Amino acid sequence: MGTVAVVIWMVFLCCCSAAQGQRRQLRFDGKTGEFRILQVADMHYADGKRTRCEDVFPQQMATCSDLNTTAFIRRLILAEKPDLIVFTGDNIFGFDATDAASSMNAALEPAVSSNIPWAAVLGNHDQESALSREGVMKHIVGMKNTLSQLNPPEAHVIDGYGNYNLEVHGVEGSSLANKSVLNLYFLDSGDYSNVPLIPGYDWIKPSQQLWFQRTSAKLQRSYLNKPEPQKGPAPGLAYFHIPLPEFANFDSSNFTGEKQEGISSASVNSGFFTTMVTAGDVKAVFTGHDHLNDFCGELTGIHLCYAGGFGYHAYGKAGWARRARMVVASLEKMDKGTWGAVKSIKTWKRLDDKHLTGIDGEVLWSKSSRQKRMLR
Ligand SMILES: *[C@@H]1O[C@H](CO)[C@@H](O)[C@H](O)[C@H]1NC(C)=O
Ligand SMILES: *[C@@H]1O[C@H](CO)[C@@H](O)[C@H](O)[C@H]1NC(C)=O
Ligand SMILES: *[C@@H]1O[C@H](CO)[C@@H](O)[C@H](O)[C@H]1NC(C)=O
């Protein structure tokens, strides 16, 4: 009996350490050929039930708290069944959070307990409580079910905390099972400029852009000798908090969604947009930060998209529902019922109303439009 118990205990220990040491490989679903990403921007979580909502109707105040933010994310997870949940910063509102770690745990709890892999980056408010940006990102990286990383191991010097990429592999058992067919880039867009002559928000620094360039080039090289279905570089998506100055290049004639406030980017242009256009693989960029903007517009082959404000303790607009953005990448169906490379990438938003109304569905990228563009 003693021996049996010891053996069971050893098996248990082995399984646990294996699960901890090995992060889950993201891959497309073999039944649907889809990979579904839920983006949650600007939860602004603080102390839970004690933290009141902002910008709801006066008669809603008494019953509204951070717990409404929690309820919204739980409902979305059930409705959309995402394969990955991405938190694009201002996950907590540091000034009002008594304890950064507890607030972060409470904010991210619906993702953690769903058992769905999740990834997060920092906004400009996450470090305003007891933890520094490094501290708060380290805390996130240590949480359960997360694929977030502090920084890439190969980049010896890089600005910020939480710059990393994730590969999404093809369907298990298909010829692309061990290849990344969708590349996700996560970057720390910082908080506020610390250059005295440059006021305002921070930007993505040359060290981060260099890491992005190298990573994108490495991923694209690894496709050169790949099997037939995957032609050209795999599409990429980038997630970070502060919008790029290029988000200001649109008006209602050429975006889908709404623009109800200015674009709060850095006051200087870091050139990251040009870096992405040059790299060639990124098809869309997803940010938060400006809660009243939720549009997507295309500039030079890259869609620039906001998610719209999610959290109830974040500024918003009474009567304009809190919202989230979904992105779904779909694989091409090949002969004999197998799955190939990514065929299209679609997006829509979900509102926190009775029926989680979906709005503004659009195709962000498709293989055929790429071919068309190349023919022209
Ligand atoms: C917040 O949640 C409470 C409890 O479920 C609910 O009664 C209230 O209507 C919600 N408020 C808003 C603004 O959604
Ligand atoms: C992918 O890797 C697994 C494990 O190493 C291997 O069994 C499988 O044959 C590989 N599949 C392809 C298509 O290369
Ligand atoms: C959108 O349209 C406006 C004119 O209404 C134009 O100034 C702007 O350059 C357009 N933006 C893009 C990205 O095409």
TrEMBL record:
Its cofactor is Zn(2+). The keyword DNA repair does not apply. Pfam families: Metallophos. It is found in: Secreted. Residues 1-21 form the signal peptide. One of its GO terms (cellular component) is cytoplasm. Homodimer. Belongs to the metallophosphoesterase superfamily. Purple acid phosphatase family. PANTHER family: PHOSPHATASE DCR2-RELATED (PTHR32440:SF0), PHOSPHATASE DCR2-RELATED-RELATED (PTHR32440). This is Putative DNA repair exonuclease SIA1.
